[in-house]
Write a structure and sequence with these properties.
single chain, 262 residues, 13 helices
Length: 262
């Protein structure tokens, strides 16, 4: 909708007249005559829309319009604009042209809009003096909250730094342990490789080097039945327990053991 469709000149003129005479009881009749405007869409238009309206009006007419809008917004739910109310933008334009403290006092005394007339929360203040007291209190509370936040932030940073240091130390420790484990396993594999097949199977059965089976290359675990037959019975039993039901690369060794153990 265009500006004139949102706020027809005749409707605007009557709003100004009501605001100038302060005959606010006429608002009901006016809105009944303009059902589209009664829906309140014009009250929630952009700042530019309202600046454009304001720039066509004299200071007195703009002040009268703001008064009419303030009461209309208060008395008619459909005209409520909240933080985007036309009252805020119209009043802001008037402020740029003249001192508007007197009108601001009037709006605060009559508005139901938490955001009028400055676009910031008015805290329910009914005058500029009340509003300034609230702002001063709010500033003090804000400073106190900021100081508390900074204290918490400092503590949080210290905790986070300590946590990072601890994790770094744990990572270094883990890397060192992993390095030591790799070296230990490498030496164990070298020793196993140097053994005969029979000696190797006995060492694995006894878990002499504390190596997981998966860490031992399959070629170091012979599945020859003759070699397995020469193993002491306890070694064969222990090796069978270690292999258990594993398949894959252990399957041939498991099957050979089953033959020997039958």
């Amino acid at each position: 909708m265009t500006r004139s469709e949102n706020l027809p000149p005749s409707f605007l003129s009557l709003l100004i007249l009501i605001g100038r005479t302060e005959k606010f009881t006429d608002l009901s009749e006016l809105l009944a005559a303009f059902p589209v405007q009664a829906k309140g869409g014009f009250m929630r238009q952009s700042p530019e829309f309202w600046y454009g309206i304001a720039d066509t009006l004299s200071d007195d007419d703009l002040e009268a319009l703001i008064k009419a809008l303030t009461i209309a917004e208060r008395d008619f739910v459909s005209l409520q604009g909240g933080s985007v109310s036309g009252i805020i933008w119209a009043f802001r334009r008037l402020q740029q042209r003249k001192n508007s403290d007197q009108l601001a006092n009037w709006i605060l005394a009559n508005t139901s809009n938490y955001w009028a007339p400055f676009g910031a929360g008015n805290g329910g203040a009914k005058s500029l003096s009340e509003l300034n007291e609230l702002y001063a209190l709010s500033a003090t509370e804000t400073l106190a909250r900021r100081e508390a936040f900074l204290r918490r932030e400092s503590v949080d940073r210290s905790v986070a730094l300590e946590r990072r240091r601890r994790r770094a130390a744990e990572a270094i420790g883990h890397a060192e342990r992993a390095k030591t484990l790799r070296a230990t396993r490498s030496r164990a594999i070298e020793e196993l490789t140097a053994m005969s097949g029979e000696e190797r199977l006995i060492a694995v059965a006894e878990d002499r080097f504390q190596l997981p089976l998966d860490a031992i290359p399959s070629e170091l675990l012979p599945s020859d039945v003759p070699i397995l037959s020469r193993l002491p019975a306890p070694a064969r039993m222990a090796l069978a327990r270690r292999i258990d039901r594993r398949s894959g690369r252990y399957q041939s060794l498991r099957e050979a053991l089953e033959l020997v153990l039958e």
